[in-house]
Design goal:
Length: about 70
């Protein structure tokens, strides 16, 4: 009878581990999905910012390299 109890206990432990692993997998999938959404939003924001930049950066007035900081 103890062999059957040992087998039942081992089976229960395996079932618990499978449930926990499945839950962890679901959480990881949700995290990856949220991160991909953030990456997509950031990429869209970068595209938007690039469109706002002047096409010819040389005509925007003085270059930043030509300006000296105030402490010079």
């Amino acid at each position: 009878m103890t062999i059957q109890n040992d087998d039942a206990n081992r089976l229960n432990e395996l079932e618990v581990k499978i449930v926990l692993a499945d839950d962890m997998l679901d959480q990881l999938n949700q995290t990856i999905f949220r991160q991909q959404q953030q990456i997509d939003a950031l990429a869209q924001e970068i595209r938007s910012l690039r469109q706002q930049l002047p096409q010819d950066r040389n005509t925007s007035g003085t270059a930043l390299l030509d300006e000296l900081p105030p402490h010079y």
